[in-house]
Design goal:
Number of helices: 8
Number of strands: 0
Helix content: over 70%
Order of helices and strands: HHHHHHHH
Length: about 190
Amino acid sequence: EMKYYNPNQTRNKIVNAFIDLLKNKRFGKITVKEIIENADINRSTFYAYYLDKYDLLEKVEADYFKGLGVLIDNVILSLTESDVQEIVKVFSRKYAEYMYDHGEMFLCFTHDEDIGPSFNVRVNQSIQALWSNDKGRQHLTIGYRYACAILIGMAANLIFEWVRNDMKESPDEIADIFQKTVSIVMNNILV
């Protein structure tokens, strides 16, 4: 029987091995040799896809942020009104689903001392894009940056807690928890 080569499957093996290593080890301490051994591939296969572990990290992050960007763009395009509560409702559901698929990587990246700070800044910048078109901004009673900081902080901490506890709740349940919590804040910062 003939076997077909699947480059996406090989990439996934490498990425999964990398994420598994990040669970117990800082990025700065991980070697390409460990990634190769964990992925059960040979050295030349790794280098066919990535220049080094930094290239691997950059590409994994790029894929994550590309997906997050598409999600945010789709949320923005789907909303025709400037209702901030509706933006939060739609976004929280979509974001919870996205995190369900990427939660392990998210937790590893955000908690790693070497990559966490820059990764967290990029996550916050991506989420701030929700208000990039001024949708809902005019209804805020506090500054836009503070509103973003509050909402992003709440979302990030909720997601961290959810992922740390093995995502026992469904994405819909987490989105509901977020919406209930956010509605308390929103009622106090919206005109």
